[in-house]
Amino acid sequence: MIEGQLNHRKRPNIVWLVQDHVVWKHYKETGGPKPNLPTYDRIVSEGTKFDRAYTIIPLCGPARASMMTGVYPHQHGILNNNVKGTLSMSKGSPTGTFNSYLSEAGYNTGYFGKWHAGSGSAQDCGFEGFSLPGYGNPYGSPEFAQYLENHSLPEPVVDVEWRAHGELDKNIRLMELGLEPNRKVGIGHPSAGTFQTQAETSEAYFISQLASDWIEQRAEDEQPFVLRVDVWGPHQPYLVAEPFKDSINPKDIPEYPNFRNDFADRPDYHKQDRAEWRQRTGFTTWEEWQPIVARAYEHFEQTDTALGIVLDTLERTGLADNTIIIYTADHGDILASNGGLFDKDSMLTEETMSIPLAIKWPGVTDGSQSCDLLVSNLDIVPTVLEMAGIRPPAHMDGDSLTKLLRKTEQRVPVWRDDLMAEHFGHMNYEGIQCVLYWQAYKYVAHLDDSDELYDLGNDSFELHNLIDDPSKQTLLAEMKQRLTGKISCYEYLSNDSNRLLQQLNK
């Protein structure tokens, strides 16, 4: 709990920026040209960045539901993108959204952008703003048409330059066909392309402007606010506009460090999934992947830059000095890693698990600080509540990061020793997996498949699975014991979860 009872005028505003599906490990740990991330850099220059931040599950729907509730997916029940569970404003419930606590404490709460956290939308859960049910198509909304008119912008038109299957359609009118992944015509996934129109006609600029308009209104209020801004990108399709398109030369992107991984020591599912992606894309060489990686980098820069509009608005309205900024993503992107994987599927690789997390808190963070403790996007909900002067409820699984932001050289805060994340399957795989991070090590338990063990300190791209290494069996036993304790503590109740526990205890 933040010390003291603060009145509304002194309580901080909080703006939480969320991108979808980012190539974060590529950005952090590879050579060659990279996307420029001016908004991220701006926040870090006055804030704290978390160098070991992970998603709690590398899949949109469950991760987003966890970032609304502060609990693991097995608690809120939205286990994959097809589960139609519903979140609500039920305080004390695993499916209750965090804004209910804020509203009761006198905060105004807004949400603009992608929802995809179960049925309904953010507005059904009591947020002001704009969102759509399910995955959603912002380009087909009346709000987008009004945005174009208000800013004298043309209708967005794109050309598809790569698609794993189907025609390379030109002159696609996004307001008619949109982004939704399962369409048989139009964009579809997986694909990449370019806008014929400028970047301001993309969804990220649209969402950032809507959020900024809302901030302008709040600048006239005395009521503190918490605002979520969730853009659809840089999730594929990688669609890039001027001035970002062609800013990266594909030929200059060096081969990804684990591209030649032969997968000989990986679980059967990994081998099966890579074979399927190679069949879908037809790509077997790095040269074939370079143009797609370049578009992903450019798309990342485009969405990050668009979010800068929100920071500009805070400064212009005089709210910046009393507004906390949180920058993160729902999960990573497995793009072109391990011999040509795509999307995220059901792998708990570092590419899908690693996420950005940076927080600027005026008067608390000093700027350009880093933290190497194990954190996740599950921790953000309790963090937001505590920043607002609200004690996080006991049923939430995440831990508030505020103690890490207040850290001084004289006192190292007590923090977790290990971190568990989970997965319940996606697309062509339905098996349960759990990952346990401890010190520099990573252990992944697979139900009915072989397990994985990595020393990330010496092998950050997971080229050597140590699961059968005789010298690592004591370490493996420690990791299994820690993971068993986590699963037992969090009360997995399904038959498959119990079978995983039995498997771990053999």
Poorly predicted segments: 1-9
Mean pLDDT: 92
Beta-strand content: 15-25%
Helicity range: 25-40%
**DSSP, total strands:** 18
Rg result: 22 Å
Spatial strand arrangement across the major sheet: 5-4-9-1-11-12-2-13
What's the helix count?
A: 15
Main sheet: strands, sense, barrel: 8 strands, mixed
Structural class: alpha/beta
What is the straight-line distance between the termini?
42 Å
Shape: globular
Give the gist of this structure:
The protein is α/β, with parallel strands linked by helices and 506 residues long. 30% of the residues lie in helices and 17% in strands.
What's the structural blueprint in terms of helices and strands?
Layout lengths: L12 E7 L4 H6 L8 H8 L2 E3 L2 E2 L5 H10 L3 H4 L22 H6 L3 E6 L14 E3 L11 H9 L6 E7 L8 E2 H4 L13 E8 L4 H16 L6 E6 L7 E5 L25 H14 L4 H31 L6 E7 L20 H4 L3 E4 L8 E3 L3 E2 L3 H8 L14 H4 L12 E6 L9 E6 L2 E6 L5 E4 L17 H17 L5 H10 L2
Parallel strand pairs: 1-9, 1-11, 2-13, 3-14, 4-5, 4-9, 8-10
Antiparallel strand pairs: 2-12, 6-7, 6-8, 11-12, 15-16, 16-17, 17-18
Helix pairs in contact: 8-10
Spell out the key features of this protein.
alpha/beta, 4-stranded mixed β-sheet, 8-stranded mixed β-sheet, 506 residues, 18 strands, globular, disordered N terminus
